[in-house]
Amino acid sequence: MQLYPLFADLTDRPVLVVGGGDVAARKVAMLLRAGAKVTVGAPMLGPELREIARRGRVAYRAGAYQSSWLDGVWLVIAATRSRPLNARIAADGHVRQRLVNVVDDPALSSFQVPAVIDRSPLLVAISSSGAAPVLARRLRERIESLIDPALAPLLQLAQRYRARIRARYADLGSRRRFYDWLHDGPVTALLRASHPLRAEKQLIAALSENSEPTSQGSVVLVGAGPGDPGLLTLRALRALNEADVILHDELISPQVLDLARRDAVQIAVGKRGGGIHTAQDTIHLLLLEHAQAGRCVVRLKGGDPFVFGRGGEELEYLRAHGIAYEVVPGITAALACAAYSGVPLTHRDHAQSVRLVTAHCQHSFNTLDWAELARERQTLAVYMGVSKLDELTRQLLAHGRAADTPFALIENGSLPSQRTLTGTLGDLPALAAQHAIRAPALLILGEVAASAAASHWYGELLDLPTRHPVTANALADAA
Ligand code: SAH
């Protein structure tokens, strides 16, 4: 270890910052946050520090640096532009046994300031021992995204009840189990759901019970987005990191599953035609079984769990069985496919509404209001429709949608294998067949789809093929 890590309590302790510019101002801001009594010494102050000094938040010593400034201070930060001057301050500090940091100069410094994640009372500090502070900062950004925002209020709560927790659980083993329960159980879940008072009540209740609280499992319904792992939310990523068990749809990309905790049990509950098929009842039972065994279960669904994802049914089932749950939204296929094919779903001039439609089975076909769907100046985003393109096209044409209405049909949206087919409604079934478009694919139909040909930016754009006017007419006739 090249450096000894330490967290210093600087509350009301005098600290000296030498330098009046932007860098000094940044250091001062951080010291003030930690409650230090800061003196700034410099011949002149920049606008930021001048304002801070004017408000009396720091003391200002105007003039050239003197070694007597070091008297009585605990720490020194040298943030001047002159290396010789910084070196002199460091040497003076050395003689007086003050800890001195020279900004961006580890060789002159006797202490370094780490990159910090501040979720007080939680503090995470990262250092590269001066090797590459920029990389330490990059790492900080990554760690930051992994920290549950509920952790700060949880720690505040734990801080306030620390003495009572110690008294109630005197023995270290049971105390550790209690803290595990606090971290993994209902208190954190309530904080995450923005119920701080109920969380505190739950903690108080647990402390007054005779037996140790047992961990009840819970289920997080997570939307995994359309496939590109970059489209996961931070919350989804955290849930994947915490999961004991992951029940995932078959459509979930391996790249997304790779982000899950290494030792999490992954169970595919596919429902894609041809592959394994798991009945919804079986999925419900699996959720129940694992949650009741006290595990943290993630139910991972493609896109958004509440858009054609049966998330509603699963939630009802969990509620009926008293299992705690959370829902994490995901980027639904319509939004992702539109973005990745350069099609704005709404447009001031061309489309005032968007409809998410499913063309899954005969039942969904018979219950759709075709006259409404065929209206102009709106966008249809059709899910699960590849095998139903013939009938879909026939119905829309029969109900008056023009044969020259543009479409974009996006296969494997947001994945490296994405293909985008463009054309007009009259040619849709023939073109899709010609290019052998397969599920999963999403159809965007409407005036806005015309922009795909020009604005498309991701994956392959299928060449504008030969037109099939006969098909369009035949379809219109047939309808
Ligand atoms: N809950 C999901 C939809 C599930 S229904 C969501 O919000 O996206 C499954 C249908 O979604 C597929 O048949 C297809 O129409 C569409 N879909 C899902 N992922 C897709 C992708 N990567 N590219 C194109 N369509 C996709």
UniProtKB/TrEMBL annotation:
Catalytic residue positions: D249, K271
Positions that bind S-adenosyl-L-methionine: P226, G302, G303, D304, V307, T332, A333, M384, G413
Amino acids binding NAD(+): D22, V23, P43, M44
Region (Uroporphyrinogen-III C-methyltransferase): 217-479
Modified residues (Phosphoserine): S128
Gene3D superfamilies reported in the protein's UniProt record: Cobalt-precorrin-4 Transmethylase, Domain 1, Methyltransferase, Cobalt-precorrin-4 Transmethylase, Domain 2, NAD(P)-binding Rossmann-like Domain, Sirohaem synthase, dimerisation domain, Siroheme synthase, domain 2
Keyword Protease attributed: no
Family in the record: In the N-terminal section; belongs to the precorrin-2 dehydrogenase / sirohydrochlorin ferrochelatase family.
UniProt protein name: Siroheme synthase
Source organism (scientific name): Dyella lipolytica
